[in-house]
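Backbone-to-sequence.
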């Protein structure tokens, strides 16, 4: 099957390369590999925001979908690092949750001077360019301002309609550039599940019909300020506040088929929750007369959440319920980051950036479990009996320091080499129910070579030593969101980071006359100390597992992308984008699996198609997107069960027009096919490797389709 998809991938690439020759054989006029799109380029499309402008640039999705650094599944993203994909006025934003990509639909299009697609590396950039990056350059004016608004209503398949909206004010006043925004986004979701299970001898066990409702209103406030203290000094401040209360209700109808006369029970779950997060960041930059630069930045953020799950059971739909589960989880996550760097020109063709970063990360977590065991009732456990277990309350603190050096060498007009070296020292201390302290130190080199075969075609090769970041939630006992039959999962305070050597080679081709973009990338990642699932059973009859370090693993694949204007078909304002990913991964030494198997997120791969057609004469545009995964390699092995699932395809469509009052009206249809998410879990009597099957569960879930109307305007 993989070979068939590889052939399809090759055919797709060859076809699109042939199509490019029909667009034009003329070489582009750029003097280098940077593509520039002035504001006038977008005027016929009447864009409202930066996102509207980006939608019209061929290949922009290829940039936004790029991954950089470690792709460790389940790890964290602590610290700031030196790479970013989006710059505003050539600068990165001092934020994580409040970063540049989140601002693109809030900056008015009339504030933009031009947009650059940068494919090279240079010390002149504010960040390391891990692939391609966008630089959004705003207009310079003594005074400018605009207000962008959006109101929306989303109708769900179950008949529920949810409102939403946002307002943003952006502009410049003298030396101050500002962006202020507020928004409300609904996270409502209703899913319907049907589950059938059979016993180990394949006789009927039970059926479950499940309705799950999630009600969430996400409120956000953002501010981004930049002030030019002098021609050589710049100060920027950013702030974010978010609030969300994701309430959830679940209704189950369970029919037991093990008796001659089936019996029915009803379960209801009520899960109130709270969530709040904030972030403050700032940076200062000074440019010396020699052109050298000093930059310092800081970020402080916090995220608090609490979730209480209570389950009630009855034998009829209406009468008295009895509580049979209380599960309360809380988490408080905090970061404090300081980073400073100095960039200097060593020669006309070489530059060097040196710097240090320090970060403190703290996570407090707590978990309470109550069950109707007949013991003393506890008010802190929902009136049920408290179930004590180790490592339920924990504080994990990491103090990390990095020293880095990044050297850029423009070998000649067509070749460049960026080399970097990062030395990391960290101490992780856990306190609470478990007390432990560990020290780590790593050296992380990276090489990035680029060769401009011509102004349109670029070859790239990278080699990097990557160390993953640990998820602090894995250190202490936590809930198991994937298995309703297992309330909690044991934590692992001895977890260590994964290490991997990651190699990539790729080709990027921008078609002449803005005809589109093609690229292909092959990657191979070799892992050591890979994180999987390990055995921590206290006895042969009490089987328990947790996340832990297993051993070696590998992931490899081919990713091809194409974004082509259909001018050769007489549709110069139509854009077709397609991508195909083929990948494999191998766990070599999983103690729970009977054979070598893959690991997420490197399953078989997937493919995506999107089409967009602008009709400027009618102030109209429309389009669609389709995404699907290739089946296979999505199996999770545990000590006593095996879980396999299939990711559904997704079809989305839209039509948008500029109409009454100078407003833009957009109608969207999402998840049009309402495909099912299906899974199979096989449970075993004792260890999975013993092969004594006890139950097979098949579950399919539908989340329903949605239709949304959005009205936007700029004033």
């Amino acid at each position: 099957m993989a070979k068939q998809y590889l052939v399809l991938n090759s055919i797709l690439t060859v076809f699109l390369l042939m199509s490019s020759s029909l667009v034009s054989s003329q070489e582009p006029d750029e003097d280098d590999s940077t593509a520039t799109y002035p504001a006038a380029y977008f005027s016929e499309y009447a864009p409202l925001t930066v996102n509207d402008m980006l939608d019209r640039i061929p290949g922009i999705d290829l940039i936004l979908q790029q991954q950089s650094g470690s792709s460790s599944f389940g790890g964290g993203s602590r610290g700031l690092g030196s790479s970013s994909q989006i710059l505003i006025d050539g600068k990165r934003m001092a934020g994580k949750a409040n970063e540049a990509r989140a601002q693109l639909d809030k900056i008015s299009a009339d504030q933009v001077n031009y947009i650059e697609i940068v494919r090279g590396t240079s010390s002149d950039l504010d960040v390391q360019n891990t692939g391609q990056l966008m630089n959004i350059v705003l207009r310079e004016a003594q005074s400018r301002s605009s207000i962008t608004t959006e109101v929306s209503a989303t109708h769900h398949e179950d008949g529920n309609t949810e409102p939403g909206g946002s307002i943003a004010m952006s502009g410049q006043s003298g030396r101050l550039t500002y962006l202020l925004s507020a928004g409300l986004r609904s996270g409502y979701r209703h899913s319907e599940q049907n589950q059938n299970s059979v016993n180990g001898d394949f006789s009927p066990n039970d059926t479950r019909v499940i309705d799950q409702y999630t009600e969430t209103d996400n409120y956000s406030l953002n501010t981004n300020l930049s002030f030019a203290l002098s021609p050589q000094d710049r100060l920027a401040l950013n702030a974010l506040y978010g609030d969300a209360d994701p309430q959830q209700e679940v209704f189950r109808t369970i029919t037991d088929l093990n008796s001659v006369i089936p019996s029915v029970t009803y379960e209801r779950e009520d899960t109130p929750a709270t969530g709040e997060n904030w972030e403050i960041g700032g940076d200062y930059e000074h440019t010396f007369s020699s052109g050298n630069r000093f930059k310092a930045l800081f970020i402080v953020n916090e995220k608090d959440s609490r979730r209480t799950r209570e389950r009630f059971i009855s034998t009829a739909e209406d009468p008295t319920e009895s509580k049979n589960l209380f599960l309360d989880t809380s988490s408080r996550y905090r970061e404090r980051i300081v980073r400073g760097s100095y960039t200097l020109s060593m020669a006309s063709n070489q530059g060097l950036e040196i710097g240090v970063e320090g970060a403190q990360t703290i996570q407090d977590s707590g978990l309470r479990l109550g069950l109707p065991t007949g013991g003393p009732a506890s008010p802190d456990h929902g009136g049920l009996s408290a179930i004590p277990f180790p490592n339920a309350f924990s504080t994990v603190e990491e103090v990390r320091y990095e020293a880095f050096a990044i050297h850029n060498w423009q070998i000649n007009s067509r070749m460049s080499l960026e080399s970097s070296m990062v030395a990391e020292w960290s101490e992780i201390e856990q306190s609470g129910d478990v007390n432990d302290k560990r020290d780590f130190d790593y050296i992380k080199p990276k090489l990035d070579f680029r060769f401009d075969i011509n102004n349109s075609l670029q070859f790239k090769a990278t080699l990097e030593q990557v160390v993953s970041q640990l998820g602090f939630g894995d250190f202490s006992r936590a809930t198991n969101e994937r298995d309703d039959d297992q309330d909690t999962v044991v934590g692992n305070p001895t977890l260590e980071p994964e290490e991997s050597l990651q190699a990539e080679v790729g080709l990027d081709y921008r078609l002449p006359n803005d005809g589109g973009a093609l690229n292909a990338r092959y990657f191979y990642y070799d892992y050591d100390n890979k994180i999987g699932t390990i055995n921590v059973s206290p006895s042969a009859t009490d089987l328990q597992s947790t996340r832990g370090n297993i051993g070696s693993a590998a992931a490899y694949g081919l990713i091809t992308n194409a974004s082509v204007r259909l001018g050769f078909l007489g549709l110069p304002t139509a854009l077709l984008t397609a991508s195909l990913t083929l990948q494999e991964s191998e766990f070599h030494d999983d103690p729970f699996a009977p054979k070598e198997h893959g690991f997420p997120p490197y399953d078989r791969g997937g493919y995506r198609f999107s089409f967009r057609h602008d009709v400027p004469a009618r102030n109209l545009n429309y389009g669609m997107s389709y995404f699907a995964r290739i089946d296979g390699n999505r199996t999770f092995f545990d000590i006593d069960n095996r879980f396999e699932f299939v990711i559904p395809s997704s079809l989305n469509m839209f039509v948008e027009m500029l109409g009454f009052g100078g407003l833009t009206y957009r109608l969207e249809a999402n998840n049009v096919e309402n495909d099912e998410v299906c899974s199979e879990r096989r449970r075993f009597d004792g260890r999975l490797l013993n092969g004594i099957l006890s139950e097979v569960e098949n579950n399919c879930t539908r989340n329903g389709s949605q239709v949304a109307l959005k009205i936007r305007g700029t004033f």
